[in-house]
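Standup notes
- DV: blocked on the single-chain target, sequence here:
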Amino acid sequence: MKNVLVLGSSGQIGAYLVVELQNMNYKVTEYDVAKDPAQDLRLDNNQVLELLIEKSDYVFFLAFDVGGSAYLEQYQNSIEFISSNVRLMENTFRLLNKYKKEFIFASSQMSNMTYSTYGVLKLVGEKYVQSMSRGRTVHFWNVYGFETEKEKFHVISDFAIMAKFNGLIKMRTTGAEERDFLYAVDCCEALIQIMERHSQISKESLLHLTSFKSTKIIDVAKIIASRYEAKVELGEKIDSVQLDARNKADNYVLNLWRPKTEISQGIAKILDRIDKEYENPEPFKDILDR
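- DV (later): unblocked, structure below
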């Protein structure tokens, strides 16, 4: 039985991945600063992390300091954001290289958007992987799932909270920008397929994890609004995080896996969780007062 280490196990994707791996009877070790401050990849000479990496058979490197558009707009150009991600990558890649571990690094489809600090940092991570023999890079395209860190909510969670508690989705932008959204469970199934066929996949293969379908943000808002009989108020801003840049996803990954979940189905699953677990609007005051 493979001993799989998930770095970033409490995150939007990591939490789903842990469940999917356990359902497939893998032995899973979770590691996330949200679980324990001692589990911080930014800590130098972390002996616990080193031991876990040494004993693992495979590592998913999903951890990163990142959030939705509002979070990135506010923080991505700060020295704290840059330093945080540089330190966690340096510490983790050093240990993965030291113990010659097979691993997946979670990059982003924004890694070629050099005007984005977040994108540049992900590109740096890709350069680390290219310098090592046993890593593979995946590019996430707007993966969405249930979220717990309200300060880092992405667009679907933001809209859901507004619609549920205010009856009004106040959009930050005109909503004309498009995204290729991928449901987290589908993403995890792809990650597991890549792990299981790791040695058969070339380092040069472009592993773009996406639905291969684009959806306008205004249409996401309408799907959520219909659930709560809420109204949608358009903003005036143009997307400043991706500048509505449109990459084209490489389809190599379709040889290994295919997405299953339509955007309306995935959103419905998230709204079910939100309705079950978020009953009090008070913790979301910052979102509701925007």
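- Follow-up: The CA atoms of residues 175 and 218 lie 4 Å apart.
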